[in-house]
Design a protein that fits this description.
- By secondary structure, this protein is mainly alpha-helical.
- 66% of the residues lie in helices and 0% in strands.
- The protein has helices at 7-16, 20-32, 38-52, 64-68, 125-130, 144-152, 154-158, 172-176, 179-193, 196-209, 215-227, 231-244, 248-260, 264-277, 282-294, 298-311, 316-328, 332-344, 350-362, 366-379, 383-400, 403-416, 421-434, 437-450, 456-467, 471-484, 489-504.
- Helix 10 (196-209) runs antiparallel to helix 11 (215-227), helix 19 runs antiparallel to helix 20 and helix 22 runs antiparallel to helix 23.
Length: 505
């Protein structure tokens, strides 16, 4: 006869091995016996929480509602280098938009997809609705609270008979006096049920019971205030928690508040003060690098990413960002070494092979280029990724002079992703070379309406219109090009020529 584990110990063992569903089922069986055990109840709440737990520090995606209906007053004309909403020209000697593509908000595309790096801040509602807000879908997130709401529906899935805890009948004051049960219950309400109001009530009662001396409850109240959009109240709670207990997590939460209030310089100072107390803490150094990258200060960002790698040489984000910086700084051989390092670490996806293919092509290692792109196509998980690979293959085709292949590749890009503005622009250039002016004009108009932040479609449209004698349209397009990229010399020369034409009329 085999030895049987005591059921509560077995449930605890499942929890430690991250078999949360099994753990919750065992706890349910224990709770059916009279009287229900507190230990089993607490363990079940923790298991159900872990099943839907999302790290609040990194998960911060601004939806359209948060962006367009933001009531926080921000200075309309911020000083250069003090705002994320109005990133200026490259302050850190980074590549210009002629070399490195930019997002809708004017920031260079980063080497690593993170929440909030995809679209930037749109200036109008129409632009906000058009912009793809995530890495995986072309549809905008209607609201960040919608995401939390969908997480909350997990409570209905985990128990077919209804929710495990009926929050409306809970006596929160009673639980607030039992610190160990209260913490598990708070996380369950906050993460699993997504009931921020009840979570806040429980946290307020518990911190009062702890005589305002427990820093953990202050952080939780701050998280609730942040979720409710009360950023100044959240800031007070996080600052109070930091005075009681210095924690890296609390610094990261407070920095998140400052970034949402568009105060990147305050966030940078906070991170640097944190580094004095926690020297070499990777998350803090990485936070500084991200802010510099969002502020378009590429050289400072690269320095801090290198500091991250000194502390943690397997940090994927730092390796990817340094690799992309080297690639756009015309050093594909060095970028190749960083991407190969990612491959050695076990990162195996479409984006990596896509980047390896481009680096091999520009580093003149032609034997590896096509095989990398083939592997990227094989690993592509959705049509957007496939479109990226075909677009890059089009560039390779242009580089080797096979314009027919390039034309086919750009067409295949549009088959996979109909909103690919860069492909429309490049197809238009190929049509211009064939002498198909009307088709080129239509493609350029499509490209400029899909991506008004890109200067290339506007400039090409200006050149095309000038060639066919439509000077007014040419001048309008050239002005849009200059607005998107003020330092573009060819645009400035074209505007100068057109002004001379108009002066002669």
């Amino acid at each position: 006869m085999g030895l049987e584990l005591e059921p509560l110990f077995q449930a605890w063992s499942c929890f430690r091995r991250r078999k949360f569903r099994q753990c919750a089922d065992l706890c349910s069986q224990l709770l059916e016996r009279p009287p229900g055990e507190q230990a089993a109840w607490s363990l079940k709440t923790r298991a159900l929480t872990e099943m839907v737990y999302v790290d609040e520090i990194d998960m911060d995606q601004e939806g359209i509602a948060e962006m367009m209906l933001d009531e926080n007053a921000i200075a309309q004309v911020a000083r250069p280098g003090t705002s994320l909403k109005l990133p200026g020209t490259s302050q850190g000697g980074g590549p210009s938009p002629a070399v490195r593509p930019v997002t809708q908000s004017g920031r260079p595309i980063t080497g690593f997809v993170r929440p909030s790096t995809q679209g930037g801040r749109p200036s109008t509602m129409e632009q906000a609705i058009k912009t793809p807000r995530t890495a995986l879908t072309a549809r905008p997130i209607t609201s960040a609270s919608g995401r939390y709401g969908r997480l909350g529906t997990a409570s209905m899935l985990t128990n077919p008979d209804g929710p495990f805890i009926n929050l409306s009948r809970l006596n929160l004051a009673k639980y607030a006096q039992k610190p160990k049960l209260a913490k598990a219950l708070f996380e369950y309400i906050f993460h699993h049920e997504n009931d921020v109001k009840n979570a806040l009530d429980l946290a307020a009662l518990a911190t009062e019971h702890a005589q305002f001396k427990d820093w953990w409850w202050k952080v939780q109240i701050g998280k609730c205030y942040y979720r409710l959009g009360l950023y100044r109240e959240a800031e007070k709670q996080f600052k109070s928690a930091l005075k009681q207990q210095d924690m890296v997590d609390t610094i990261l939460y407070l920095a998140k508040v400052y970034l949402r209030l568009d105060q990147p310089v305050t966030a940078l100072n906070l991170f640097k003060q944190g580094l004095d107390r926690f020297p070499g803490e990777v998350t803090l150094i990485c936070g500084i690098a991200r802010i510099y990258e969002e502020m378009n200060n590429i050289s400072s960002a690269a320095e801090y990413y290198k500091d991250v790698l000194k502390q943690d040489n397997t940090h994927v984000e730092a390796i990817a960002c340094i690799g992309s910086n080297h690639f756009y700084a015309d050093q594909p051989e060095i970028a190749l070494r960083f991407y190969r390092r990612l491959l050695q670490m076990g990162v195996y996806n479409c984006q990596l092979f896509n980047n390896l293919g481009l680096c091999c092509f520009y580093a003149q290692q032609y034997d590896m280029t096509l095989s990398s792109f083939e592997r990227a196509l094989f690993l592509a998980e959705n049509e957007e990724e496939t479109a990226d690979v075909w677009y890059n293959l089009g560039h390779v085709a242009v580089g080797i002079g096979d314009l027919n292949l390039a034309y086919q590749c750009f067409k295949l890009t549009l088959v996979n992703n109909n909103d690919y503005a860069e492909a429309y622009n490049n197809l238009a250039v190929l049509e211009m070379q064939k002498g198909h002016v009307e088709q080129a004009r239509a493609l350029l108009q499509t490209a400029s309406s899909l991506a008004p932040h890109m200067y290339e479609p506007h400039f090409n449209f200006a050149i095309l219109s000038e060639k066919v004698g439509d000077l007014q349209r040419s001048y309008t397009a050239a002005q849009k090009s200059e607005e998107a990229f003020p330092g573009h010399v060819d645009t400035q020369q074209l505007i100068k020529q057109l002004k001379q034409h108009f002066a002669m009329l």
